[in-house]
Amino acid sequence: QQLKGGGVKDLNDFFKNRNGMLERINDAQQKLFSQKAAWQQLTPEERAAQPEIAGLIQKNLDLIMKVVLLDRENEKLLLQNKLVPASHLPPAGRQNPNLVAQRYKSNH
User: Fold this and answer.
1) 79's torsion region: left (phi>0), alpha (psi -120 to 50) or beta?
2) Which of 54, 71, 79, 99 has a Cα-to-Cα distance from 61 of 20 to 30 A?
3) Domain limits at 75?
4) If 0-12 CB within 10 Å is exposed, 13-18 middle and 19+ buried, where does residue 57 land?
5) Arithmetic mean of pLDDT, 13-37
């Protein structure tokens, strides 16, 4: 919202907060993938005792994906408004719009 309204005053602070958030999101995603794998290793009887867990894991993974997609939108806005210094441009692999979907599918 700040990017759309031109309300970002300190780009260094913006990028620092963004990078910290992305690291936390990545850590959370990796932990959820581990939890999902552990959950799938349980017997059907053990999973049936708490059926809501699978849905909660999936909801969290979906929310993480929404955050990642919002971050991509932010990157586009930054580029459109020429607010990104060359050192902050994303690597070529991240500019592939299908990369996120492919990674998400490969871990499901």
Assistant:
1) alpha
2) 79
3) 2-106
4) middle
5) 87
pTM higher than 0.70: no
pLDDT at 36: 94
| 34 membership: H or E segment, kind and range | helix 11-41
Count of the separate structural domains present in the chain: 1
User: pLDDT by residue (tens digit) across 34-72?
Assistant: 999 999 999 999 999 999 999 999 999 999 999 989 888
Q: Per the structure block, which two tokens stand in for 23?
A: 């690291």
Q: Among residues 9, 14, 6, 27, which one has the least CA distance to residue 71?
A: 14
